[in-house]
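Hi P.,

Sorry for the delay on this. The queue was packed all week, but I finally got your sequence through. Input first:
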Amino acid sequence: MAKRKNRKVTVKNAGKNLTANRKYKDTVFRMLFTDRNNLLSLYNAVNGSTYEDPDVLEIVTLENAVYMGMKNDLAFIVDTGLFLYEHQSTYTPNMPLRDLFYIAEEYQKLVDHRSLYSSALQKIPAPNFLVFYNGTEKKADSWTNYLSDAYENLTGEANLELKVITLNINEGHNSNLLEQCQILKEYAQYVAKVRAYARDFELNAAVEKAVNYCIQNDILADFLRKNRSEVIATSIFEYDKEEEERKLRKAEYEAGMEAGREAGIMEGENHLKLLYAKLKQDGRVDEFLQAMTNPEVLKRLYQKYEID
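Then the structure:
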């Protein structure tokens, strides 16, 4: 492996600045499932339960909890369980860390008027973390991320763990779940229509056409008629954000390859492409630039992904 000099590489955003000068936004997913009846249907579908009264749900979503300009989606209590549901259109392995911050704030709110110095054990609802994914990067039906995956140099059992299960809700995945929750199924159909039209039309036109198609074909029809303007604006933002993040990943890759070429890493270009693909799949592309300028990091990642 060729010897390299450490160098600083700046990645320019390939698209516009997405976070500047805008208000916090809901997602279409969140708009749909803040409706108690829809949320109860989703909960029943996920858990195989048969609750009929939406009042069994105690909504505890923190309205002031915002990450990267997007509100956290849904938090609610059923019986003695606390459920955190999130929607994700771009894969990240950092959901356990995000949920750790969120659940800590939830518990602080729930025990606000209790004394933690009491001799009696203060009971709290057991947490459950679930993500509904409709991005295009991951193809599996489901996967699990752990907080301990983020620990550096962990030896033995983690003293603090948090498990997040992700379900792929794109059409063609988890069909039983989609059949059990009609609103979720129709949401997946709507997203698929937006993406299909976006291949041939400008984004604004694609979203308009998707909304019109769904109304005409009784897909989320009542919801879309009632919230048409907001859904269109939100969908444009969501899809645009997804596209810009993909452009940024491409820019990161190109900058990393440029760094490698300048540092003399030419003979292993196929290996580097494979490494980038692995890191992208794991949501860790930010490590690619570091690897291209640090021989020890590159060696460690090659070993981790068994690239030789």
